[in-house]
């Protein structure tokens, strides 16, 4: 029986609509990498492949471990993303909030996790009116490390009083989400096709399930008698 569901945000419960790529383009430009420069296409490809990973970790890799530039780029990314959220360029994946409520109505705890900072996560939650929607929200800084490490999943388990990792389900739109869930020992580790990665990427990463949407998780974790309509 699943007692905790750990959900990713951007691409899983919150529509990305290219926000990450646009914020990245602005941020990397602030540390001297022009969009028409020779290095930019390779950097953007890396960002796409590592969607779901902690953003500061991505910038450290792209900027060859230059911590000052990585921190500057990360802060610029958070500002750029927040500006777009404030402008109303933020919406939920259809049915995500209703699915979360249905899970909690069935005594399943729900945690929202992200690779963003706590400030950006809070701005997204406020913009969507999701305050109090879940039992817990977590960022890499609050848990220790970001994906693909298991820290956020295990932190959610500990804070919410779950006794067994096999009582946990994880859902995300990237292979990094899948690896995090598997490393944590979750019994359901699902990829969703509403975000960055495709079915082949999830299969290669070892996902237990590939879902069209987070809404489809209900059919996996709720009792068979529960009306899913």
Automatic annotation (TrEMBL):
Gene Ontology terms for molecular function: phosphoglycolate phosphatase activity
Cited InterPro entries: HAD-like_hydrolase_sf, HAD-like_sf, HAD_sf, PhnX-like
Name of the protein described by the UniProt record: Phosphonatase-like hydrolase
SUPFAM superfamilies in the cross-refs: HAD-like
Annotated TM spans: none
GO cellular component annotations of the record: cytosol
NCBIfam families reported for this sequence: PhnX-like
Database matches in PANTHER family: PHOSPHOGLYCOLATE PHOSPHATASE (PTHR43434), PHOSPHONOACETALDEHYDE HYDROLASE (PTHR43434:SF19)
BP-aspect Gene Ontology terms: DNA repair
Organism field: Saccharopolyspora shandongensis
Protein keywords: Hydrolase
Pfam family membership, one: Hydrolase
Domain of life: Bacteria
